[in-house]
């Protein structure tokens, strides 16, 4: 017989899958780390578990306590799952551009969700970050775990994501490509891979065009959960060798290609990371082994990235949508 005792035992140890169709004409090996196969459907399960355990250990989170967190959804799902198993209440704040499906997942796990305007600066009293700080102060027994500040965020990737990739590739990885949101993944996994390889592995970030990590002003873009209007403490600028700006159009087109050509229903930040990985791969050779991290599932974006009408509103109708209509009309 074989079973797991707790859902938290199923967090991490995600597989690598070689991308074989979207990589046509590329001689390097491109392996995708499938984080949507975590129990909560994203890479953020990893940090949720570690942040809660850190707060329990240092006495900030006591039995029956409340977790308050500003989250675009994925961290919330991870926290809500661990909180449900351990008897904590969850109150999440999120920007209004986060899809309704994602908010409803949080509510399904018993969390309360406070929706805040996305189009205000981070220090504005109505921003989802400021509101979370206020709620953590006002609710008795509440703790803000703060993925944007706590070392537990990047530590989870230093101790799990990074070592997994090194072991799975038997140290043959040459490039690590990952999207940057809080910066926890690139800072933690990237640092581990740099250290263990003696600086040989190249660490490449993917950032929405417009966000500050790739030199933008912080102007709005469509992708969720990635990029920032300002550099948070969770990001370690010493780790990435390079951060590539990817336009929404490329990210969305690649996301849709992943579903159609590779069978991978993943989110927009996965498409963004793969778009960046493909541009790295085009200049790489047959001995290169590129690992690209796919942070979450595409289920939360069916009414956005995978909806032709929604895309059309932003002038982003992908070419294959037109082809499908033309074929249907015949
Ligand atoms: N993709 C999605 C969908 C996310 O929610 C996040 C986290 N905000 C990321 C990518 C980026 O991960 P990190 O915060 O570790 O930089």
Automatic annotation (TrEMBL):
GO process terms (BP): cysteine biosynthetic process from serine; cysteine biosynthetic process via cystathionine
Q: Which residues cross the membrane?
A: none
Query: Which reactions does this protein catalyse?
Result: L-homocysteine + L-serine = L,L-cystathionine + H2O
From the UniProt record, give the pathway where this protein acts: Amino-acid biosynthesis; L-cysteine biosynthesis; L-cysteine from L-homocysteine and L-serine: step 1/2
Keyword Zinc present in the record's keywords: the answer is no
Which keywords has UniProt assigned to this entry? CBS domain, Lyase, Pyridoxal phosphate
- GO annotations of cellular component type: cytoplasm
GO molecular function terms listed in the Swiss-Prot or TrEMBL record: cystathionine beta-synthase activity; transferase activity, transferring alkyl or aryl (other than methyl) groups
Q: Does the keyword Lyase apply?
A: yes
List its EC numbers: 4.2.1.22
The cofactors required by this protein are:
pyridoxal 5'-phosphate
Q: Which family does it belong to?
A: Belongs to the cysteine synthase/cystathionine beta-synthase family.
Q: What is this protein called?
A: Cystathionine beta-synthase
